[in-house]
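Q: Convert this sequence to structure tokens.
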Amino acid sequence: MELEEAIKQKKFRSEHEKMMVNIIYTNGWLGGQQVHLFKPYGLSQQQYNILRILRGQHPDPASVSLLMDRMLDKMSNASRLVEKLRQKDLVSRQECKHDRRQVDVLITEKGLATLEEIDAQLEQVFEGMSTLTIEEAQEVNRLLDKLRG
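A:
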């Protein structure tokens, strides 16, 4: 569906304005798909992001500051998100051996299993993106990287 039809707007001041609105609209569209996907697991997009970061670190722990640095949503409160994940038994927290002021965060086996289930469902989402060829997806990635400088 074209942007103009989706948001019921016929004109934009420029192609750059349309591009900006299109990126924002598409972000919301993708976010809505993720919300629907994560809901049965009681996860938010930010919590899912933390679990993915921790899986990438596994078996090594991550500090909360490392999580904040790598998160997609820089405005998130990583400490609060980690605590919610700990309450769900998806991560564990322990005092760092080298620095008692720091907390080490590790993904649990339950967290890894949850990500495995979500990964299987994400394949269906990716199949829905097959309207773009691999080359087109690479071009979108290249252009977005270029846009961010």
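Helices lie at 3-7, 15-38, 45-57, 64-70, 78-87, 109-128, 134-148.
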